[in-house]
Design brief:
- The protein is an alpha+beta fold.
- It folds into two domains: about 200 residues, Ribosomal Protein S5, domain 2; about 170 residues, GHMP kinase, C-terminal domain (Alpha-Beta Plaits), CATH 3.30.70.
- α2 packs across α3 and α8 packs antiparallel against α9.
- The chain is globular, with a radius of gyration of 21 Å.
- The two termini are about 20 Å apart.
- The model has no long low-confidence stretch (mean pLDDT about 95).
- It binds alpha-D-galactopyranose (GLA).
- The site of alpha-D-galactopyranose (GLA) has 10 residues, from α5.
Length: about 375
């Protein structure tokens, strides 16, 4: 049974009726452009064919009864007290989205709902961004309001920044809301322009879950962001997007070793995104692969957000025939890596990387080919 069916069935079982609405928001994998979004830079993610779903029916009062399949739990709370700290942790993201909708003036009614999906949690595939976006889709559908996809994404970012307190950029929610089937999205995180670029016909995006749960990510993420802001300040630019390698080298002494390396990652990563897009358009997959490989090295050595497991799996992947390139994806410190692999080499690639990784780390990885999917949506049932 697929995730969508599980959610629908659980709703019927729990509430004894069919739901009125089913909203869906996909996870994302980032091909390249890591830790550039909060520097006003460029990213190249795709929405993936794994998603969070919420099935729901409105109620006559202001109560939300929400069942979580993933957490095997249920919680009932009032729309008037969304910030109650005693409610279960997993309800924070849905409550945050309802808080945002209320703040924007949407009078969302109480509802019965079931939420869950097939994005692995805490793996760098943005399951939390998907929860924010799916709840915004649902809330808007409950009040029959329509807004542009980009505004749903920005709503999700505001939930994350202000309700959850995580200073993320716009990439995850933009990918979840604006994904296009069979395409990666070139997002300019300053203008918020999102341009779909076709995934090459003869290559596959393979996701490699190290099964090492992300740790450290919140505090280290915030620290990286502060370091980037400090570096931009020293370079005299609004954001690192506006700096180049000449400016960087001229300011080397003033920046000091750490800020220099952080800024070098961001500046060179933005260049790698541009190079990747040009090479994708020209069919130069070797160039794409080289950029992916270099991105990993830069994230590992200059930005210091990789970990042993991500290094092992990326290195194994990069060494396989038919693999153009591989790198960690998402915030880092665990979670997933991504590889671009020749279609006819995918099977052998998975058969080689999975056991070799397990032997080196003792962790059983999950590898699968991902299809680039459409962004979030809602169905009236
Ligand atoms: C997390 C954040 C994103 C982005 C990535 C790193 O996924 O939520 O905004 O910064 O890390 O590229």
């Amino acid at each position: 049974m697929d995730a969508r069916e599980v959610i629908l069935n659980t709703f019927r079982k729990h509430f004894g009726t069919d739901p009125a609405l089913l909203a869906r928001a996909p996870g994302r994998v980032n091909l390249i452009g890591e830790h550039t979004d909060y520097n006003d830079g460029f990213v190249l993610p795709a929405a993936i064919n794994r998603a969070v779903y919420v099935a729901a029916s409105p109620r006559d009062d202001d109560m939300v009864e929400l069942v979580s399949v993933d957490f095997d739990d249920q919680s009932t709370f009032s729309l008037d007290v969304l910030d109650d700290p005693d409610l279960p942790g997993w309800t924070r993201y849905p409550r945050g989205a309802l808080w945002w909708l209320g703040k924007k003036g949407y009078a969302v009614p109480g509802f019965n709902g079931v939420i869950g999906g097939d994005i692995p949690l805490a793996s760098g595939l943005s399951s939390s961004a998907a929860v924010e976006v799916v709840m915004i889709e649902l809330g808007l559908a409950l009040v029959e309001a329509e807004i542009p996809q980009v505004d749903k994404a920005l709503g999700g970012v505001e939930v994350e920044n202000k309700f959850i307190g995580m200073p993320c950029g716009v990439m995850d929610q933009m990918a979840s809301a604006m994904g296009v089937e069979q395409h990666v999205l070139l997002i300019d995180c300053r203008s918020l322009d999102a341009r779909p670029i076709p995934v090459p016909d003869d290559a596959s995006i393979v996701i490699m879950n190290t099964m090492k749960k992300r740790g450290l990510v919140d505090s280290e993420y915030a620290r990286r962001r502060e370091q980037c802001e400090a570096a931009a300040g020293k370079l005299g630019v609004k954001a690192l997007r506006d700096a180049n390698t000449m400016m960087l080298d001229a300011a080397k002494d003033d920046l000091g070793d750490v800020l220099y390396r952080r800024a070098r990652h961001v500046i060179t990563e933005n260049l790698r995104v541009q190079a990747t897009v040009m090479a994708l358009k020209a069919g130069g997959l070797k160039t794409v692969g080289q950029a992916l490989h270099n991105s990993h090295i830069s994230l590992r050595d200059d930005y210091e957000v990789s970990c042993a497991e991500l290094d092992v799996i990326s290195e194994l992947a990069n060494a396989q025939p038919g693999c153009y390139g591989a790198r960690m994806t998402g915030g880092g410190f665990g979670g997933c890596a991504v590889a671009l692999v020749k279609d006819d080499a995918v099977e052998a690639f998975i058969a080689a990387v999975a056991p070799a990784y397990e032997e080196k780390t003792g962790l059983k990885p999950e590898l699968y080919v991902c299809q680039a999917a459409a962004g979030s949506s809602v169905e009236q049932l």
